[in-house]
Design a protein that fits this description.
Layout lengths: L21 H26 L7 H27 L7
Length: 88
């Protein structure tokens, strides 16, 4: 039985210590309110996994969902107004 070995070099970059670019960091900063709102929603949902929902839990989840939707709407509206490259 023959052993199978890779005969080609790795396709990935030589160094895996690549830092994000300034553009990528700016994109993360723009999306940060949405990320935080979705984490808050996830936290509210995780708290209720192993117990029945109380009125307080229902309100907490509803408020977190509304914040996430508002952040998503704001991000979408912002992306629609920021046209670059000479677009009309």
């Amino acid at each position: 039985m023959k052993t199978i070995a890779a005969l080609q070099h790795l396709v990935t970059a030589e160094s895996l210590d690549i830092e994000p670019t300034a553009t990528e960091l700016d994109a993360i900063d723009v999306e940060m309110p949405l990320i935080l709102a979705e984490v808050e929603l996830l936290d509210a949902q995780i708290m209720t996994i192993d117990r029945p929902l109380s009125e307080l839990d229902i309100r907490r989840i509803r408020r977190a969902r509304n914040r996430a939707l508002a952040a998503r709407r704001a991000l979408t509206n912002r992306a629609g107004t920021e046209l670059t490259g000479g677009a009309a």
